[in-house]
Structures are given as structure tokens and as C-alpha cells.
Amino acid sequence: MADEHLQTAVIHAGQSPEPVTGAVMPPVFQTSTYAQEWPAKHTGYEYARGDNPTRQALQRCVAALESAEHGIAFGSGLGATSTILQALPANAKVVGGDDLYGGTYRLFERIYRKRGMDFSYADFSQADPAEVIAEGTHLVWLETPTNPLLKVADVAAIAARCRAVGATLAVDNTFATPIFQRPIELGAHLVVHSTTKYLNGHSDVVGGIVLTSEPEWAEQLTFLQNASGAVPGPWDSWLTLRGVKTLAIRMAKHQENAQRIVAWLADHDEVERLHYPMWESDPGYALAKKQMSGFGGMISFVLRGDLARAERLVASTKLFTLAESLGGVESLIELPASMTHASVPPEQRAALGIDDGLIRLSVGIEHVGDLVADLQQAMDVSVRG
Fold first, then answer.
1. Active-site residue among 51, 93, 99, 101?
2. Is the pTM value of this prediction over 0.85?
3. Can 289 be counted among the known catalytic residues?
4. Is 197 a catalytic site residue?
């Protein structure tokens, strides 16, 4: 789907007026079951775990935004991830990025490894796909940009290698959103979102979704969606769909504010290292410009000094709320090492560059001058001790 049509698609894709009443907004079908005319003769709806019209509207809309044929929604992003793993053989070989969301890493290592799956990790921002994706690989799990270091990987090159060896490529597109990156157009088989984040955009829903144009994957995931039951309720689906309608304008404002803050941080004497893929000095800038049309509000930086100083900074902001998650209209701040990535072993975090003092920002849509002033006063507090 061309960029110039996304502003329209977020509002209309996959939706039409409700046929009985003509309601412009898809209604919340708050029901657990559906009447049948005769045993097994029904309108296509039997039981709400299997299907729900509100959920269908969300699935169709996000699938259209990602240039996918199918959308399969779940009760959380990790529910979506887990369902993909359930579709693999018990002894499947999975290659993940070395800088993964901590919840994904925990799911891989503490749950599915015990069930016989083999997991290995690679820095896809540096590695040759042919060297790290071997014959016999079943799944490659890619975040780009990554969480929390915002590293960028070449989706098209990795997709080509996956197709050459018969592996499935799943791309977590939560950070970029379909506004700025569409991995299926670059060759990915599956795209995953935590709809909790930018798609919903208001920090009042937990959810996940998988998008695909691969018929076999769509069939398997739809079966597992019903059989495993990790589905979103109709209210969560409706709230997410309502949030998607403003996704294009929100992402533009997130990006505008983030770029202003990046410029401020880049010139700040107290910042030791800065990560933002659309910043010209970022290692991933050239690739990001090639495969992305922009980036949103995620920034990571390392503050000079020790962990205690970083803790003082994140605890001293007044507009940036100290909290996990991201992608809402409000600005958030956190320390990955002790919050979102605490499940990653300390020695592994250190090897990856996730310093104890790494700070992650989710820049909201407030006035950017107020956000900069808030960061500055928090930095002043951190210096004073």
C-alpha cells in the first residue's frame, strides 16, 4: 500500500457501515455465543473464541496496513509470539536477534527451550545472513529496529536467505509500525505487533496481532487462535481499532518530537551514547533510510556516570512517566536493565551493550519544549545527587 494512502487506510481499511443499523463505527459485539438456525447451520459465527465481528474488523484493517492478506489477533503480543512457536515442530531451530525484547527472550529460553526447541542468536545488524541462518532453520525472529538498542537489520536480505533455506521470517514491527515500515513488502512471511503499543496508542489495552499473506501460516494460526484461546475480547479489539484511526497523525508527531529531542541529546555533554536510527550519526542510518520511510518516538541513550545517577534521572522527570511499555500519546521513561530487560542475564546485557545506565524514552505527542525542559531538570537533579 502506497504511503500516500495510509492516512485513509487507517480510518477505512477492512471496515464498512454495520449492515443492520448502518452504524458508521464497527459495533462492540459483546457476546460469547451466537444463535444457530439449525444444528451447525449458522451465519458463520458459532462461539466468540473462534470469531467475533469486532475482532474481524481489527484484523482486516491492520492486515491492509501491512500489505497482508490475513490478520490474526491475540490477547497480547507475547500471546501472538507464543502461538507462532506453537505452530513449529517440537525440535524446531529458531534464530533470533541478539537484542530482543526481554519478554520474548524469556519466552524462548524459559518456556520453549524446555520443550525441545533450539534457540541461537545473532546480531543481524552486522552478520551475513548466510553465516547465521543455516540449512534446517525453521524460524528467524527479527526485531528491526531492536528493543532497546534500536539496531537496524536488512529485512530483504534476511528474507532472501530464509526463502533459500526454507525458513520462515517473522518480523516484529511494533516500533516502526506500518506507517514507517512494511516487512511483508520486503519479503517477510509474518509480521507481528504488540498492539498494546503504537497501534492502540493510548495505553489502555493489551493485545497482539500477526499479519501474513502465506495461506498455510494463516490456516495454522487461525486454528491455533481458536484452539489455544489467547484471543482479545471485543472491547479490546474496538479500542485498538479506534486507536488505529489516528495512527498516521500520531506517528508523525511522535517522530517530530523525537527528532527534536535527539538533536538536543546529541549536543548534550552528559550523554555518552545515543541510539536513534533516523539520526545521521547512528550506525543503522543508511539502512534505515533505505527500508523505512521514518521512525517514531523511541530513543535510547546512555547517561554519563553510574547506575545511581541514571536512576535519579528517570525518577525525577515530571512529564515523562517512569513506566514500562511504550507507544502511547504520553511520554514514558525507563531503565531497561532493571525493568523491561531484567529477564536477560546481566552478563548478556553487558555483552550486548545494554548498560545499567541505558535509558529508553518513548516520546509522546506533548509540546516538545516541555519535554526537553523536563529532561533537562531531571538531568540537573541527577548531577546534584
1. 101
2. yes
3. no
4. yes
